[in-house]
Design brief:
- With 1927 residues, this protein is mainly alpha-helical.
- Helices cover 83% and strands 0% of the residues.
- The chain has a two-stranded antiparallel ribbon with strand order 1-2.
Length: 1927
C-alpha cells in the first residue's frame, strides 16, 4: 500500500513489491519505500522499517504527513507581482490562499487553523474560481457548520475533491493545522490544473531562459572558484610565517589580527565556498531538469580541489594558532617575570632610598626619649638592612634570568639592577657612620635628662616655697606645715644626686678634638646653674618653715563664729522682705524658699549650739581673748532669736497671698483659654486647600474638645472663690470674674458647632480638587513620555524600555485607585449638595475620566509595539546563545578523544562529560522552541522572515554537526560506556546526597508562618526525593560491589572508599531528616500560634482603644448611637471570644508538649488571657454607664421638649386681644380647644414626673438634676394653667349670650355639612380612592370628638346664662335640639366607615395579586436566562444571583401563602381566577430556579477548571520567564541568593506537579461525566502538561548556569580572602621589630616560628585548594578560564613572596636571637661573677677550727666557679663568632660586654686566690698563736711548779728536790724542739710580711721572755738547792 501511495503521489515507478505476508516481506517492502524517500531527499528522523511494520501510530502518521508535505505541498510555488519573491511549501500555500481570498468580506487567512473555522475561506476559494457554484453574499459568518458543509459538498460534487474533513473537525477552537493544509492542497492542485493550458505556452520560453541563465551561472562559477583558490593560496603563505614580534603587545596584536581573520575575513570566504557548492548544484540541477549534458568544472576548479585547498588552509590556520598561543604564553611569562622584577626592584629601590634618607639624617632629637628611640630604630634598621641582602640578590637573579631569556627590554632591566646594587653599597657606608654619632648623643642626653628632671623638681619646689599662702584658717596652716616637712626631706635627699650628675656631665666637656654632641660651655653652664639652684632652694625652705610656725594658733574660733553670723544676717534679709509675690508663681516660689529656709534653720541650730559651747569652754579656761569671745557669743544668740520670730511672721503672710493668687491665676487661665477658643471657633476661614482645611479641622477638633473640658474647671473655680477670705471672696472683682467666665463659655460652645460643619464641607471639596490635580499631573508626565518614546532596535534599549513599562504598572494601579476615589468623592459632594460648586465638580470628574481612558489606550498601543520588537531581538539572542552553547559542547566532546577506556580514563571522561546528556536534551528542546518561535515571528514580521529562518538554519547545522561528533565518540567508547554511566550516576548521586545533607543541615528557622510552611513543604519534598532515590541507591551499591570485587589497584580502592562513604552519608541523611522534621514541626506550630496571637492581640488592642476612647454623649441621639455602637462592639467581642480562647488553649497545649519556645508561648498566653478578661469587664461596665446616660438624656430631652411646648403655649395663653365682639366667639372656640389640648397634655407632665422618680430610684446620682428639672417644669405648668383659666374666664365674661348663640349656630352648620358627607354613595373606584375616603372618614371622626366636647360645654354656658337672667327654658331647648341632632349623626357615620373598610379589603387583594404576578414575571426572566457566564467571575456572580433569587423565592413563599389564604374569604370568580394564575406562575418559577441552579453548577465546574488551568499556565509562564532570564550574579552573595531563589523556584516547580496532577484529574473527571466542553478541556489539559514539562527542563538548565557562576564567585572569594590573608601575613613577616632584649626576641622568635608553621600549613593547604578549584574550572572549560588563570598566577606569586619574607624574617630573628642571647649570657655571667665576688666572705676566722672550715668552704667555692669558667670560655667563643659577623658599633658593643665579663672574671679569680692565701696566713697565724699559747701555759706551769716547791728540811729532801728539779730541767729540754718550731714559724710569718706581723712579733718576744724567765727561775732554784745541799 505504501509503495502504491508513493507511486501515485510521486508519479514515478518504484521497485516491484515483494509478495508474501511474512514479517520479512513487510520489512522489505517498507524499506524500499523508505529508500525511495531518502533518494528524494526526504529527511526521516529516528524512523525505521521496524517502526512502521510494528504499527507505531505516531511514526506512521508522521511518515504519512512527511509524504504529503513532500509530494503534495513542498512543490508549491507562488510568485508575487511586486518583488518576484519565491516562497515554498506552507508559506507559498498561505500566500496563494491570501491572494485568492483577497477582497472577500469576513475572510482573513492568517494561519491554517483558526482562520478556517467559519467555512468562509473554503467557500471563497471555490467562488474565486467557480463563481457560478456559490452565492457568497448569502453566507453568514455565524453559521459556520453550514458554510463548511456547503464547501465540502461542492468540492466533492462539482470539483471531484474527496472530503478529507468533516465540519465537526473544523468547528473547534483550534482546528488541526496539518489536516487543513492537506485538504487545502487539493484545492490548490485542482485549480492549478485549470491553468495548465496557460502554463504550457510559457514553458518553451522558460526553457530558453533557463539555458541562457545556466551559461551565465557557469561563467560566474569559474570566476568565483579561481578567485577563491588564489585567496586560499595567499592566505596559507601568510599563515605559515613564524616570525613573531618579541613583545607581548606585538604578539597580542598578531593574535588579534589572526582572530580578525577568522571572524571577519574567513567567514565570507567560507560562505563563498558554500555558495560555490550551491551554485554548482544549481547549475547541474537545472541542466538535468532541461535534459542537458551536466556541466563538470575544469581540472583545478573542482569542488574536491577547493575542499583540499580549504583543508590546507584549515591546517595552516590551526598550526599558526598553536604557534601564536605558545609564543603568547612565553611572552606572558616574560612579562610576568619583568613585572615581578619591576615590582621587586621598585620595592628594593624605594626601600634603599628611604633607608639612605633615613640613615643620612642625624635627627637624633634633643632629648633622651628621642635619642633612645633613634638608637632602637637604628638597631632595627641595621638588622633589617643585614637581612635585606638576600632580597637584593633575588632581584639580581631575576634580572639574569630575563637576560638569559632575551627579554626585549633587557637594557632597562640591567640598568635598574646596577642601580639597586649601587644603592645597597652606599647604604652600608652611611649606616656605620651614623652608629658612632648616635652613641655619643645617647650618653649626653641621658645626663641632660637627669639634669632636667632635677631642675624641674627644684622649680616646682621653689614655687611651693615662695608661696605667700601661710594659711587662711587653722586647717590650712596645719596642712601647709605637714607638706613643708615632706619637702625638706626631699631636698636633703637630692644633694647626692646633684653631685653625681655634675660629675657625669663634665666628662663630655673634656676630650680630644672631634665630633662632640654638644658645646662644652653649655655643659659647664648647666652644671653651675644646677648647683646654684640647689643652694637657693635650701635657703628658701628654712625661711618658709619660720613663717608657717608664726601663722599657727589663729582662726579656729573666730572663723566659726564669723560663719554663723554671716549666715544669720543673710537669712534676716530674706525674712525681712515685704515681697508677697506678684503672681502665683512668685508666691509658690517664695513659700518653697521659706520652707527650705526653715529646714536649714533647724539643721543649723545644732551646729550653733556646739560652736557656742566651744566658745564658753574657752572663756572658762581664761583664754587671752575671753572677753571678745563672750561678746561674740551673746551677739550671736540675740540674732538667732530675732531670726526665728521673722520666720514665723513671713510664713503666715505667704500662705494668705497664695490663696488669692491661685484664684486669680485659675481665672486668668480660664479667660485665656476661652478667648483662644473663641478666636478659633469664630474664625470664618475654611482654608484655601486640602492641607490648610485639614489643619484647621484638626485644630477645631482640639479646640472643641478643650471647650468641653472647661466646664469642670469653671465649677472648681467657683468652689475656690468660696474658700477665699470673706472680704476677698465678697469683692466685686471676684464676682465679676465668675459671671464673665460663664457668659463667654456659653458663647464659645455655640460657635463651635457651627464652625465644625463648615470645615467638614470644605475639606471634602478640597480633597477632590487635590486628587484631580495630582492625577492630571501624572497623566501629563506619562503621556509626554509615551508620545516622545520611539521603539528602539537594540535589545539592550528594548529591555530598558520594557523595564520602564513594568515599573509603570504599579503606578497605573495606584492612579486607578485615585481616580476611583475622585469619582466617589464627587458623587458624595453632589449628593450632599454643593450648589455653588456642583458644575465645577462635574466638569473636573468628567475631564479626569476622559484623560484616564485616553492614557490607557495610548499605553496599550505602545506596549504592543514594544512586545513585538522585543520578541524578534530575543529570538536572535537565543539563536546566538544556542549556537555558542552547541559549539562549546562540541569542544568538550572533542577534548575527550585522548582518554583511555580503563577506569582512570573512564573517570576522567565522566568528569568531562558530566551533565552532557541533560545539556543535549535541553539544547534539543531549545531548538524545538526556536523553530516554533521562528515560524511565529516570520508570520508576524514578513520583512524579517528571511533573516529569522537563516538564523535558525545556521543553528540547526551546528546542532547536526555536534550530534554526529557525539555519536562517533559514543561508538568509540565500547564497553567502557557502562562503567562511565555508573561513575556518572555515582557522582550525580553523591552530588545529590551532599546537596540534600546541606539542605537538611540548614539552621534556617522560620520567622513567619509562610516561611515555616515553606520549610515544612521543602522538607517533605526532600523526604519524597529520598524515597525516590532509594531504588537508585540499592542499584548503585550492587553495581559498585560488582565493579570493585576482587580489584586491588588504587583507582578501585578509591572507588571502594567512595562507596563506603556513600553508605555512611545515606544513613546519616535519614537521621538528619528526622531531627530536622521534629524541629520544623515545633517551629511551624509556634508560627501558627504567633499568627493566631497577633490576630488576637490586634482584637485586644482594638478593644482597649475603643474602651479607652468612649465618652459619655450629651444628647439622646448621641447616647443611643453610643449604646448601639457599644452593643455592636460587644457582639464583635463575643464573636472574637472563641478565637481568643482558642489561641489561649492552643498555646497552653503547645507549651505542655515541650515546644522549644515554651516560655515565650506561656508568657503570650498569660498576657492575652489577662487582657481579654479585663476588656470584657470594662465593656460590661461601659455599657451600663452608657445606658444610664441614655436614660438621663432621654429624661432631659423629654423635659426640654415639654418646656419648649409650655413656653409656646404660654405665648398663646397670654394673648388678650379680644376687644372686638365680632371675633370674640372664634377666640372663645379657639381657647376652648386650647384648654382641651392642655388637659390632654397634662399626662405628658405626669409621665415626665414618673420617669424622673423612677430614674432617681434606680440611679441616685441623678437626683439633683432630675429634681431641678421637675421643679422648673411644675412651676411653668402651674403658671400656664393659671394664665389659661384667667383668659377663659375673661372671654366668657365678655359676652356670654353671644357666645352661646354663636356656638349653637356653628354646631348646626357643621352638622349639616357632615350629614351631606355621610349620605354620599361614593365608596371608591380603586385602592387609592378608598384609602383617601378612609382618611377623610378618620378626620370626620376626630371632628366629631371635638364637637362633642363643644356640645357638653353648652351645658356650662346654659347655667351661666341662667344666672344672668336669661330665659333658661329657651336656652336649654336650643341646647337639647343641638344635642339630639348630634346624636343622630353618629350611627350613619359608623356604617359608612364599615362599608369603606370592606371595599378597601377587596381592592387591596387585587393589588397584592397583581404585584405578586409582576414580581414573579420579573424573576422568571432571570430564572430562564441562557447566560451561564464566560469566565469564572461571571459564573460565580450568576450563581450568587441565582442563590439570591432562590432565597427571595423562599422568603416570598409566606407572602404568597398569605395572599392565597386571604382569597378564601373573598368568594368571587375574578378572585379565584387570579388566584389560579398566581399559583401557576409561582410553581413554574420555583422549577426554573432549580434548573438554572444545575446549569450554573456545570458551568462553574468548567470555568473553575479553565481558571485553574489559566492560573497554572500563567504561573508556569512567569516561572519560564524567570528560567529564561539572562540575569547574572554580580557577586557571590547575589549568586548564592539567586541559587537559593532558584532552589525555591525549583522546589515550587516540583511541588506544582501536584497542582498539574489535580488539574489532570479534574479534567478527566469532567470528560468522564460527559461535560459539554469535554474536548476543549482535554486540549487545555494537554497544553498545561506540555508547558510543565518544558518548565522543568528550563529549571535544570538554569540551575547548571547558576552553579557554574557560583563556583566562579566562590573561587574569587577564596582568592581574595587568601590574598588578604597573605597581605596580613606579609605585614607580620615584614615587621622590623627585632626585640629589645633576650626575652623579647625569644618571644618574637617563638611567635614567628609558630606564625611560620601555621602560615606554611594553613596557607599551603589553602593555596593548593584554590589551585585545584581553579584547575577544575579551567579544565571544565569555564567561560572565564582566562580570568581564573590570571587569579591563579597572581595568587601563587603572592604566596611565593610571602614565603620569601618568612624566610628572611626567620634569618633576621635568628641573628637577633644570637646577639641578644650573647647579651643575655654576658649579663647573666657578669651577674653571677659579681654575685660570687660579693658572696666571697671577708671573715678570716676566729680560731683554727673556723679557719679550717672556711678553707673547706673556699675549696668548694673554687670548685663551683670552675663551671662558671666554662661559661666564660663559651662566651668568649660566641663573642669571637659574633664579632666576625657584625661590624661597627655592634662589634664594639660585643667586645665591650666580653671585656666586662672577662674583667669581672679575672677579678673573681684574683679575689679567690687572695682569699685562699689569706686563709692560709690566718691558719698559720692561729697555729702559731696556739703553739705560743701552749708553750706559755706550759712555762707558767713550770714556773709555778718551780716557785711552789717546798724548802728542804734535810739533805735527803734536798736531793729529792734536786732530782725533781732536774726532772723539770729535762722536761724543759724536751720542749726545745717545740720552741724552735714555734720560733721558726713566727719568723717565717714575719719573713713573708704576714698581715698580723706586729702581733706575731709581740708573741715571739713574749715567748722568748717567758722562756728566759723560766730558765732563770730554774737556774736560781737549782743554785739555791745546790747551796742548800752544801750547807
Amino acid at each position: 500500500m505504501l509503495l502504491k501511495l508513493l507511486e501515485v503521489l510521486a508519479g514515478e515507478r518504484l521497485p516491484k513489491p515483494t509478495k508474501g505476508r511474512m514479517r520479512i516481506h513487510c520489512l522489505e517492502n517498507v524499506d524500499k519505500a523508505l529508500q525511495f524517500l531518502k533518494e528524494q531527499r526526504v529527511h526521516l528522523e529516528n524512523m525505521g522499517c521496524h517502526d512502521i511494520v510494528d504499527g507505531s501510530h505516531r511514526l506512521t502518521l508522521g511518515l504519512v504527513w512527511t509524504i504529503i508535505l513532500r509530494f503534495q505541498i513542498q512543490d508549491i510555488r507562488v510568485e508575487t507581482d511586486d518583488n518576484k519573491e519565491k516562497r515554498s511549501a506552507k508559506d507559498a500555500l498561505m500566500l496563494w490562499c491570501q491572494m485568492k481570498t483577497a477582497g472577500y468580506s469576513n475572510v482573513n487567512i492568517r494561519n491554517f487553523s483558526t482562520s478556517w473555522r467559519d467555512g468562509l475561506a473554503f467557500n471563497a476559494l471555490i467562488h474565486k474560481h467557480r463563481p457560478d457554484l456559490i452565492d457568497f453574499d448569502k453566507l453568514k459568518k455565524s453559521n459556520a457548520h453550514y458554510n463548511l458543509q456547503n464547501a465540502f459538498n461542492l468540492g466533492e460534487q462539482h470539483l471531484g475533491l474527496t472530503p478529507l474533513l468533516d465540519p465537526e473537525d473544523i468547528s473547534v477552537d483550534h482546528p488541526d493545522e496539518k489536516s487543513v493544509i492537506t485538504y487545502v492542497v487539493t484545492y490548490y492542485h485542482y485549480f492549478s490544473k485549470m491553468k495548465a493550458l496557460k502554463v504550457e505556452g510559457k514553458r518553451i520560453g522558460k526553457v530558453l531562459d533557463n539555458a541562457i541563465e545556466t551559461e551565465l551561472m557557469v561563467g560566474r562559477y569559474e570566476s568565483l572558484a579561481s578567485d577563491l583558490l588564489e585567496w586560499i593560496q595567499q592566505t596559507v603563505v601568510i599563515l605559515n610565517n613564524r616570525k613573531f614580534s618579541n613583545s607581548l603587545v606585538g604578539v597580542q596584536q598578531q593574535l588579534q589580527a589572526f582572530n580578525t581573520y577568522r571572524t571577519a575575513e574567513k567567514p565570507p570566504k567560507f560562505t563563498e565556498k558554500g555558495n560555490l557548492e550551491v551554485l554548482l548544484f544549481t547549475i547541474q540541477s537545472k541542466m538535468r531538469a532541461n535534459n542537458q549534458k551536466v556541466y563538470m568544472p575544469r581540472e583545478g576548479t573542482l569542488l574536491s580541489d577547493i575542499n583540499k585547498a580549504w583543508e590546507r588552509l584549515e591546517k595552516a590556520e590551526h598550526e599558526r594558532e598553536l604557534a601564536l598561543r605558545a609564543e603568547l604564553i612565553r611572552q606572558e611569562k616574560l612579562e610576568q617575570l619583568a613585572r615581578r622584577f619591576d615590582r621587586k626592584a621598585a620595592m628594593r629601590e624605594t626601600w634603599l632610598s628611604e633607608n639612605q634618607r633615613l640613615v643620612s639624617q642625624d635627627n637624633f632629637g634633643f632629648d633622651l626619649q628621642a635619642v633612645d628611640a633613634a638608637t632602637k630604630k637604628h638597631e632595627a634598621i641595621e638588622t633589617d638592612i643585614a637581612a635585606y641582602e638576600e632580597r637584593v640578590s633575588a632581584v639580581v637573579s631575576v634580572a639574569r634570568e630575563l637576560e638569559a631569556e632575551q627579554y626585549h627590554d633587557i637594557k632597562r632591566i640591567t640598568a635598574r639592577k646596577d642601580n639597586v646594587i649601587r644603592l645597597w653599597e652606599y647604604l652600608l657606608e652611611l649606616l656605620k657612620a651614623r652608629r658612632q654619632r648616635l652613641e655619643m648623643n645617647l650618653g649626653l642626653q641621658r645626663v641632660f635628662q637627669e639634669m632636667l628632671y632635677i631642675m624641674d623638681w627644684m622649680d616646682e619646689m621653689k614655687m611651693l616655697l615662695l608661696s605667700q599662702d601661710y594659711g587662711k584658717h587653722l586647717l590650712g596652716v596645719e596642712d601647709l606645715l605637714q607638706k613643708h616637712t615632706l619637702v625638706e626631706a626631699d631636698i636633703s635627699i637630692q644633694a647626692d644626686r646633684v653631685k653625681a650628675v655634675g660629675t657625669n656631665a663634665t666628662k663630655y666637656s673634656i676630650g680630644d678634638a672631634g665630633y662632640k654632641p654638644c658645646d662644652p660651655q653649655v655643659i659647664q653652664g648647666r652644671v653651675s646653674h644646677l648647683e646654684f639652684c640647689y643652694q637657693e632652694l635650701t635657703q628658701l625652705a628654712a625661711e618658709r618653715r619660720a613663717h608657717l610656725e608664726e601663722s599657727r594658733r589663729l582662726w579656729k574660733f573666730f572663723w566659726e563664729m564669723a560663719e554663723e553670723e554671716g549666715w544669720i544676717c543673710e537669712k534676716e534679709q530674706i525674712l525681712s522682705s515685704v515681697e508677697r509675690g506678684k503672681d502665683l508663681t512668685g508666691v509658690l516660689r517664695l513659700l518653697s524658699q521659706h520652707r527650705a529656709l526653715e529646714d536649714e534653720m533647724s539643721g543649723r541650730a545644732g551646729h550653733l549650739k556646739h560652736s557656742v559651747a566651744e566658745g564658753q569652754v574657752m572663756v572658762q579656761t581664761d583664754h587671752f581673748a575671753a572677753a571678745r569671745i563672750q561678746e561674740r557669743i551673746d551677739d550671736l544668740q540675740a540674732q538667732w532669736a530675732a531670726l526665728e520670730r521673722l520666720a514665723a511672721l513671713r510664713r503666715r503672710r505667704l500662705e494668705e497671698a497664695l490663696a488669692l493668687h491661685q484664684f486669680q491665676a485659675d481665672a486668668d487661665d480660664v479667660d485665656a483659654l476661652t478667648l483662644d477658643a473663641l478666636r478659633i471657633v469664630s474664625s470664618g476661614e475654611t482654608g484655601h486647600d486640602e492641607f490648610s482645611t485639614l489643619a484647621l479641622f484638626r485644630k477645631h477638633k482640639d479646640a472643641a474638645a478643650e471647650v468641653a473640658s472647661y466646664r469642670p474647671v469653671i465649677d472648681s473655680l467657683r468652689e475656690q472663690a468660696a474658700s477665699l477670705p470673706r472680704e476677698e471672696a465678697e469683692s466685686e472683682e471676684v464676682r465679676g470674674r465668675l459671671a464673665g467666665i460663664e457668659e463667654r463659655h456659653k458663647e464659645v460652645t455655640a460657635l463651635t458647632k457651627l464652625r465644625k460643619q463648615a470645615l467638614q464641607d470644605a475639606l471634602a471639596l478640597y480633597k477632590m480638587f487635590s486628587e484631580v490635580n495630582a492625577c492630571e499631573v501624572w497623566i501629563d508626565e506619562k503621556e509626554q513620555w509615551l508620545n516622545s518614546m520611539e521603539i528602539p532596535e537594540k535589545l539592550e534599549d528594548l529591555e530598558v524600555v520594557q523595564h520602564r513599562f513594568e515599573s509603570l504598572e504599579p503606578e497605573m494601579n495606584n492612579q486607578a485607585s485615585r481616580v476611583a476615589v475622585v469619582n466617589q468623592i464627587a458623587r458624595q459632594l453632589m449628593h450632599n449638595g454643593h450648589p455653588s460648586e456642583k458644575d465645577i465638580i462635574k466638569t473636573q470628574q468628567d475631564k479626569l475620566n476622559n484623560r484616564w481612558s485616553q492614557f490607557r489606550d495610548l499605553l496599550d498601543q505602545k506596549k504592543e509595539s514594544l512586545n513585538s520588537a522585543l520578541g524578534v531581538q530575543n529570538y536572535h539572542l537565543d539563536c546566538n546563545e544556542t549556537k555558542s552553547w552547541i559549539k562549546e559542547k562540541t569542544k568538550v566532546i572533542e577534548s575527550t578523544q585522548e582518554l583511555g577506556n580503563d577506569l582512570t580514563g573512564v573517570m576522567a571522561l565522566q568528569r568531562k562529560l558530566t551533565g552532557m546528556e541533560r545539556d543535549l536534551a535541553a539544547i534539543e528542546d531549545k531548538l524545538g522552541g526556536l523553530r516554533g518561535e521562528a515560524q511565529q515571528l516570520a508570520e508576524e514580521h514578513p520583512d524579517q522572515a528571511k533573516a529569522i529562518t537563516g538564523r535558525l538554519a545556521e543553528t540547526t547545522g551546528v546542532w547536526e554537526e555536534m550530534k554526529n561528533t557525539l555519536k562517533t565518540r559514543e561508538e568509540s567508547l565500547g564497553e567502557a560506556r557502562k562503567l562511565q554511566q555508573f561513575l556518572r550516576e555515582l557522582d550525580d548521586f553523591q552530588s545529590w546526597l551532599s546537596r540534600t545533607q546541606t539542605a537538611i543541615a540548614s539552621e534556617d528557622m522560620a520567622n513567619t508562618l509562610a516561611e515555616a510552611e515553606k520549610l515544612m513543604a521543602q522538607h517533605q519534598g526532600i523526604k519524597n526525593e529520598i524515597q525516590n532515590y532509594e531504588e537508585d541507591y540499592q542499584k548503585m551499591r550492587d553495581m559498585g560491589d560488582m565493579v570493585t570485587r576482587g580489584q586491588t589497584d588504587a583507582q578501585h580502592m578509591f572507588l571502594h572508599q567512595r562507596l563506603q562513604a556513600l553508605d555512611t552519608g545515606w544513613n546519616e541523611l535519614h537521621k538528619m531528616w528526622e531531627n530536622r522534621q521534629k524541629l520544623l514541626s515545633q517551629s511551624h506550630a509556634y508560627q501558627l500560634f504567633l499568627r493566631d496571637t497577633k490576630q488576637a492581640e490586634a482584637f485586644l488592642n482594638n478593644q482597649e482603644y475603643v474602651l479607652a476612647h468612649t465618652e459619655m454623649p450629651a444628647t439622646l441621639q448621641g447616647a443611643e448611637a453610643a449604646i448601639k455602637k457599644q452593643e455592636d462592639f460587644m457582639t464583635t467581642m463575643d464573636a472574637n471570644e472563641d478565637k481568643i480562647n482558642g489561641v489561649v488553649e492552643a498555646g497552653r497545649r503547645l507549651a505542655g508538649t515541650g515546644n522549644i519556645n515554651g516560655e515565650r508561648i506561656q508568657e503570650r498566653v498569660a498576657s492575652i488571657d489577662d487582657r481579654h478578661k479585663k476588656n470584657r469587664e470594662a465593656a460590661v461596665e461601659l455599657l451600663m454607664r452608657l445606658k444610664d446616660n441614655r436614660d438621663l438624656q432621654k429624661f432631659l430631652q423629654d423635659c426640654q421638649e415639654l418646656s419648649l411646648w409650655i413656653n409656646e403655649k404660654m405665648l398663646t395663653a397670654q394673648d388678650m386681644t379680644y376687644d372686638e365682639a365680632r371675633n370674640l366667639h372664634s377666640k372663645w372656640l379657639k381657647h376652648q380647644a386650647f384648654m382641651a389640648e392642655l388637659q390632654a397634655n397634662k399626662e405628658w407632665l405626669d409621665k415626665n414626673q414618673k420617669d424622673g422618680m423612677l430614674l432617681v430610684s434606680e440611679k441616685p446620682e441623678t437626683e439633683a438634676v432630675v429634681k431641678e428639672k421637675m421643679a422648673a417644669l411644675h412651676a411653668m405648668w402651674e403658671e400656664l394653667e393659671s394664665t389659661t383659666q384667667t383668659k377663659a374666664q375673661c372671654l366668657f365674661d365678655a359676652n356670654k349670650s353671644e357666645l352661646f348663640t354663636q356656638s349653637c349656630a356653628d354646631l348646626d352648620k357643621w352638622m349639616g355639612g357632615l350629614e351631606g358627607q355621610i349620605q354620599s354613595e361614593d365608596h371608591g373606584n380603586d385602592l387609592t380612592s378608598v384609602n383617601i375616603l378612609l382618611k377623610k372618614q378618620q378626620m370626620l371622626e376626630k371632628q366629631v370628638e371635638v364637637r362633642q366636647k363643644e356640645v357638653v360645654e353648652l351645658q356650662t354656658q346654659v347655667k351661666a346664662l341662667g344666672q344672668e337672667g336669661k330665659d333658661p327654658e329657651e336656652v336649654d331647648g336650643r341646647r337639647q335640639l343641638v344635642e339630639m341632632k348630634f346624636q343622630e349623626l353618629l350611627e350613619p357615620l359608623r356604617q359608612r366607615k364599615n362599608v369603606l373598610v370592606e371595599s378597601r379589603e377587596v381592592y387591596q387583594f387585587n393589588r397584592d395579586v397583581e404585584d405578586e404576578i409582576l414580581w414573579v414575571q420579573e424573576r422568571m426572566a432571570v430564572a430562564t436566562s441562557s447566560d451561564h457566564g464566560h469566565n469564572l467571575q461571571t459564573v460565580q456572580l450568576l450563581i450568587k444571583k441565582n442563590q439570591t433569587l432562590q432565597k427571595e423565592v423562599q422568603g416570598h413563599q409566606p407572602r404568597i401563602n398569605g395572599i392565597l389564604q386571604r382569597s378564601q374569604s373573598l368568594l368571587k370568580d375574578e378572585t379565584r381566577r387570579r388566584q389560579a394564575d398566581l399559583q401557576q406562575l409561582w410553581g413554574r418559577l420555583t422549577e426554573e430556579v432549580e434548573l438554572r441552579h444545575g446549569r450554573l453548577e456545570e458551568a462553574h465546574k468548567a470555568q473553575q477548571y479553565y481558571f485553574d488551568a489559566a492560573e497554572a499556565e500563567a504561573w508556569m509562564s512567569e516561572q519560564e520567564l524567570y528560567m529564561m532570564s539572562e540575569e547574572k550574579a554580580k557577586d557571590e552573595l547575589s549568586a548564592v541568593t539567586m541559587q537559593k531563589k532558584h532552589q525555591i523556584v525549583e522546589q515550587a516547580v516540583e511541588d506544582y506537579a501536584e497542582t498539574v496532577h489535580q488539574l489532570s484529574k479534574t479534567s478527566r473527571g469532567l470528560v468522564a461525566h460527559g461535560h459539554p466542553e469535554s474536548e476543549r478541556i482535554s486540549m487545555r489539559q494537554s497544553q498545561v502538561d506540555k508547558l510543565y514539562a518544558g518548565l522543568k527542563d528550563l529549571s535544570e538548565e538554569r540551575r547548571g548556569k547558576l552553579d557554574e557562576r557560583l563556583r566562579l564567585f566562590q573561587l574569587n572569594r577564596e582568592v581574595d580572602d587568601l590574598e588578604q590573608w597573605i597581605a596580613e601575613r606579609e605585614v607580620v613577616a615584614g615587621s622590623h621589630e627585632l626585640g629589645q632584649d633576650y626575652e623579647h626576641v625569644t618571644m618574637l622568635q617563638e611567635r614567628f616560628r609558630e606564625f611560620a608553621r601555621d602560615t606554611g600549613n594553613i596557607g599551603q593547604e589553602r593555596v593548593d585548594a584554590v589551585n585545584r578549584l581553579a584547575d577544575e574550572l579551567i579544565n571544565a572549560g569555564h567561560g572565564d578560564a582566562a580570568t581564573v588563570a590570571e587569579w591563579k598566577d597572581g595568587l601563587n606569586e603572592a604566596w611565593a613572596d610571602l614565603l620569601e619574607l618568612i624566610d628572611t624574617r626567620t634569618q633576621i630573628l635568628a641573628a637577633s636571637f644570637e646577639l641578644h642571647k650573647f647579651y643575655q649570657d654576658a649579663k647573666e655571667i657578669l651577674g653571677r661573677v659579681l654575685d660570687k665576688q660579693q658572696k666571697l666572705p671577708e671573715e678570716a676566722g676566729r680560731d683554727q677550727n673556723t679557719v679550717d672550715a672556711l678553707q673547706r668552704m673556699h675549696s668548694t667555692f673554687q670548685h663551683d666557679i670552675q663551671a662558671l669558667g666554662t661559661q666564660v670560655r663559651q662566651l668568649q667563643e660566641d663573642a669571637v663568632r659574633l664579632q666576625s659577623a657584625y661590624a661597627g658599633d655592634k662589634a664594639d658593643d660585643i667586645q665591650r660586654r666580653e671585656s666586662e665579663v672577662l674583667e669581672a672574671w679575672r677579678g673573681l679569680l684574683e679575689a679567690c686566690d687572695g682569699r685562699r692565701l689569706r686563709l692560709l696566713d690566718t691558719g698559720d697565724k692561729f697555729r702559731f698563736f696556739s703553739m705560743v699559747r701552749d708553750l706559755l701555759l706550759w712555762m707558767d706551769d713550770v714556773i709555778r711548779l718551780i716557785e711552789a716547791q717546798e724548802n728542804p728540811r734535810d739533805v735527803s729532801s734536798v736531793e729529792l728536790l734536786m732530782n725533781n728539779h732536774q726532772g723539770t730541767k729535762a722536761e724543759v729540754d724536751a720542749r726545745n724542739h717545740s720552741f724552735s718550731s714555734c720560733i721558726e714559724l713566727g719568723k717565717s710569718l714575719l719573713a713573708r710580711r704576714h698581715y698580723a706581723s706586729e702581733e706575731i712579733k709581740e708573741k715571739l718576744l713574749q715567748l722568748t721572755d717567758k722562756r728566759k724567765e723560766m730558765i732563770d727561775k730554774w737556774e736560781d732554784r737549782w743554785e739555791w738547792l745546790r747551796l742548800s745541799k752544801t750547807h
